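#data-curation
PF: Archiving a pair of folding outputs for the training set. Convention for this channel: one message per protein, sequence first, structure tokens after, nothing in between. First:
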Amino acid sequence: MERHDGKLRRIPETTIRRLPAYLRALTLMGHDRVTSDALGQAAGYSSEQVRKDLAYFGAFGTRGVGYDAKMLAQEIRRILQLDQGVRAIVVGAGRLGTALVRHTDEISSDVVISAVVDVNPAVVGTQFDHLTVEPLERLEAVIQERDIGMGIITVPQSAAQAVANRLVEAGVRAILNFAPVALTVNDPTVFVQHIDLTLEMQALAYFVGSAARSEP
């Protein structure tokens, strides 16, 4: 899938996914100026890849001098629309959902989890950190009231598709799905990202076995 900027240029999804890594590297490096070599090394990509990715959005650096780190970080935040304030809702207040809220609060001020909802009466009304778990029946109302643009699904597999349908109808523009099921979203303007931790671990098992097979 590709994205388009205001001038209708096609931006590869892979490029968009690398921008947060560049932003994190710039923040951690803390330099006034940074070269593409240094930025690429800090982010885990080649200098050529850095230059190619940034070129989609304009000329930010000077040959032989590098990038103004503060300005580049601001531009990446603007491109990702982090400067506008992104609010998210977590659907499912189980262990994963509550862990995500706490983790996001600790490491990021760019995406703010503004609400948590759950269907379990025993969970609704409980509070952790700054949020009170609200009933799932208020999903649409909460999204509208708090201008939420992102939905995070941490419910069981059997409930995930129904939740996704409600999130789309309520107006979210992006969904992060942790349920172990591929969701079907008919609205092409809503981007869905699947994260299946079990599949990731199973894939990594190949490399564990590969290392064992290579031993003499």
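PF: Second:
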Amino acid sequence: MNENISQNINWFPGHMAKTRRLISENISFCDIVIELLDARIPNSSKNPEIDGLTSTRPTLTLLNKSSLADPDATGKWIAEYRERGKYALAVDCITGDGLGRIPSACASILKAKIAGWNDKGMSGRKIRAMILGIPNVGKSSLVNRLCGTKKARVEDRPGVTLSKQWVSAGKDLDLLDMPGVLWPKFEDPETGKNLAFTGAIKDSILDTETLAGELCLRLFTLYPDLFLTRYKLTAEATEGKGAWELLETVAKKRGFLISGGEPDTERAASIVLDEFRGGKIGRITLECVKQRDQ
């Protein structure tokens, strides 16, 4: 699966070469960068090249989809960012939680610059923010929420935003929505897995049964109570089982069987992935602060 992920990244529209150029061409028109990360996988959902491309501007990091993530883990991530001297907020572009703090956070970060504008007779000048993040992390949903109307196309699949677009987000903020950015090769195979688990990589290029089996094992390892409860399993029924065996166990428990009574792992895989991504298994974070890059 990992090789499959690495070898098929080029299908993303607006892949890294094009997006790198767009960022370089437009960063001078922006005052601040708003980078969205997936609160369930803060490390894996961060393109390591973005910091270098946007180093001339301050960044506000948003841990999006926080309603799907473990709140204790999200709190630790926010604290970690602040300890590094970075600005971070937990938000959710579906529920709207935390979004109201974004304009004031941008203004606070740019306090000195805004004072300079006022001294030059530019009082009331709108802050211009570049929105960056990997595909399917919620950029278009953020834009639509902040604008209060549907300005950007939104679908629950990666690669929907194909080009840049400026939109107004009220009297204080203009947003430059950019295409999703993924890097051409993952140095760490776990990064590819995490992105695939959360739906940042198209399922159509993956072996979803293998993927779902590995997700079952990860969930059983990190959040055993949530996993067992959701699929009505017992510790005895899952003891010592590997990824594929766990997926088969889920299929059997849900009554997903094919001819001969064999477990329908394809159907079970679709269910497990959908239920994880939709938060039906519980609020889960796959990366802890201690796993961050040093």
